[in-house]
Write a structure and sequence with these properties.
The chain is an all-alpha fold. 66% of the residues lie in helices and 0% in strands. The protein starts with a helix and ends with a helix.
Length: 207
Amino acid sequence: MHELARGLGGGAFHALIRVAYAIADRDDVDLAAGLAYWRHAYLDLGEISRPNVDEEATGATPFDVDDALANVRAILRDVPARELPLIASTAVRGFAATRSFTMLHAMTATHAIRVLLPYASDADTAVRYLWRAFVAAYTSAGLPEIPTETALLQHYAEAPTWEALGVRACSSDDEHVIKAAFTAREEDRAYASPSYRVAVARYLKLI
């Protein structure tokens, strides 16, 4: 996986997600197709490297482009695998707030990485590349404000049960609705966060 990790954001994360689903379903045929798709959609975001010591110093001026970019490099670098739950939390809250295609795929990508990490030779590097692609996706989505989990919790009582959401999703002919419901349910099982049910209910316009 290490060789492909640098390009995991290609194709709006679709290839990464397809490979994870194939592994979860133990579907060797779809796994081969997903890996081929990943290679075809591969989008190299560059090496992850530490800035030089003199680049880490910040100036006293209100804004300095060079310093800002150095800070961006540091932000993109310093996300070890243990922080994946925090990325996942931000992804689902962003999706709940925007209901956008981009933030949906950010959420499904964090789920996909969680599925694939046991097969990664370097989990930290895989998550750092996810983080880099995540930041790029968030930027392309227009830097939307991310609500807190507490804010989303206010709507938790209004959200239908997972069983009801599943029935509603399965009746849809929109693959993104099914993907959102499945991914959010799986992530909720992993992290036990109310944000996931609220996010799907909002996506289905039920609350």
